[in-house]
Amino acid sequence: MFWTRALIRRAARVRRRVTSERALGERAIAAYLGLAIGDALGATVEFLTPNEIRHQHGLHRDITGGGWLRLKAGQVTDDTGMSLALGAAILAHGGVEAKASAEAFDAWMRSKPVDIGNTVRRNLIAFRKTGNPEAVPSEHDAGNGAAMRVLPVALACYGQTPEKTLAASHAQAHTTHHNALSDGACDTLIFMVQDFLAGRDALDVENRRAAVLVGRHPVFAYGRKRCENPSGFIVETIQAVFQSFFATASFEDCLIDVVNRGGDADTTGAIAGMLAGARYGLQAIPERWLSALDDATSRQCEDQARELIALGGH
């Protein structure tokens, strides 16, 4: 009888672990698909003001392509492209390495992507000349280009110490953005994703992460005036994302709210989608968005999510 009860308890523990691991994997996939969906949804209205969006689209809520880049429906931009390039480098090297990240971004830039940020281009050209994967610290590098691609780091470092995670965050970020505000945003987003993967409550995460970021860098305060038409400045990006993310209660509502603010909408959409995917999971992502996303991109996101989360033994 003793051994029977022991075996039953052990089987129950195994089932709980398997269920937990399955839930973790699904949230990781949802975060990656959320990033790509937010990117594709927001790209249509990138650089438009909220009034222009209302005039041209009413309430923008479907993945239709177009926009200033004239994308096909479901096509993504540099936000997803750089994330996938970084994820591939992490998997190839078994972790986050600065030089491998810079080389991956450089190869991505040589592939002639549909879009590339000025700061990214400038610092990757410098990397080609010097071979140094760390950009020179600069007050001009406070853009959102490093923050938009942090998801592979969050997944690969899940379960690691905060110190190792922070080192990985800065290793990838400093290849193109060596700036304290950029670092603060990158670090915060990574830990937020990991908190949601672990099943933490949104209010808890807001207090543990967003409030701490604002405490360290008060310029990020997001409780004031509604941030509309956010630029590529990391502060405006985070303000718009946090306002939408913490004021809504579903994946769909979050993304619709943030992209209809206009401005750098592909990036605010990508970051909000990454967080919302990790928070709400796969079942919360509308089927019309999943089916509209480019098939090859969707497969890459799913495959990388599984492999990256497994990198840490999960």
Automatic annotation (TrEMBL):
<keyword id="KW-0378">Hydrolase</keyword>
<dbReference type="GO" id="GO:0046872">
    <property type="term" value="F:metal ion binding"/>
</dbReference>
<feature type="binding site">
    <location>
        <position position="266"/>
    </location>
    <ligand>
        <name>Mg(2+)</name>
    </ligand>
</feature>
<feature type="binding site">
    <location>
        <position position="267"/>
    </location>
    <ligand>
        <name>Mg(2+)</name>
    </ligand>
</feature>
<protein>
    <submittedName>
        <fullName>ADP-ribosyl-[dinitrogen reductase] hydrolase</fullName>
        <ecNumber>3.2.2.24</ecNumber>
    </submittedName>
</protein>
<dbReference type="InterPro" id="IPR013479">
    <property type="entry name" value="ADP-ribosyl_diN_reduct_hydro"/>
</dbReference>
<feature type="binding site">
    <location>
        <position position="78"/>
    </location>
    <ligand>
        <name>Mg(2+)</name>
    </ligand>
</feature>
<dbReference type="GO" id="GO:0047407">
    <property type="term" value="F:ADP-ribosyl-[dinitrogen reductase] hydrolase activity"/>
</dbReference>
<keyword id="KW-0479">Metal-binding</keyword>
<feature type="binding site">
    <location>
        <position position="77"/>
    </location>
    <ligand>
        <name>Mg(2+)</name>
    </ligand>
</feature>
<feature type="binding site">
    <location>
        <position position="79"/>
    </location>
    <ligand>
        <name>Mg(2+)</name>
    </ligand>
</feature>
<dbReference type="InterPro" id="IPR005502">
    <property type="entry name" value="Ribosyl_crysJ1"/>
</dbReference>
<keyword id="KW-0326">Glycosidase</keyword>
<dbReference type="InterPro" id="IPR050792">
    <property type="entry name" value="ADP-ribosylglycohydrolase"/>
</dbReference>
<keyword id="KW-0460">Magnesium</keyword>
<dbReference type="InterPro" id="IPR036705">
    <property type="entry name" value="Ribosyl_crysJ1_sf"/>
</dbReference>
<feature type="binding site">
    <location>
        <position position="264"/>
    </location>
    <ligand>
        <name>Mg(2+)</name>
    </ligand>
</feature>
<dbReference type="Pfam" id="PF03747">
    <property type="entry name" value="ADP_ribosyl_GH"/>
</dbReference>
